[in-house]
Write a structure and sequence with these properties.
Layout: H1 2-39, E1 44-48, E2 53-58, E3 64-68, E4 79-81, H2 84-88
Antiparallel strand pairs: 1-2, 2-3, 3-4
């Protein structure tokens, strides 16, 4: 009788720790996915280069777009420019 009760207690402890581990894995897994979705929210950065143009920088890919403000010089539409990081590897 004593031997069977120790087996039941041992199995109860194993099952309890298994349930507790699954609970922690599911709780921390959800927080990680929320962090990824909020990082995309701040993916682009608006950079004022000088009084004549403005730059939008993509932090994820390293690409940026620039636009000349109407001052009589250069185009007034957005131009995609290659990242200097990509050009330095060539």
């Amino acid at each position: 009788m004593k031997n069977s009760s120790s087996i039941i207690i041992g199995l109860a402890i194993i099952v309890g720790f298994t349930i507790l581990g699954l609970f922690f894995m599911s709780a921390f897994g959800k927080e990680t996915s929320n962090v990824d979705s909020t990082n995309n929210e701040y993916r682009y950065e608006l950079v004022p280069a000088n009084e004549n143009n403005i730059i939008i920088f993509d932090k994820k890919t390293g690409e940026y777009w620039k636009k000349y403000l109407p001052s009589g010089e250069g185009p007034t539409n957005w131009e995609k420019v290659e990242s200097p990081i990509k050009n330095s590897g060539k």
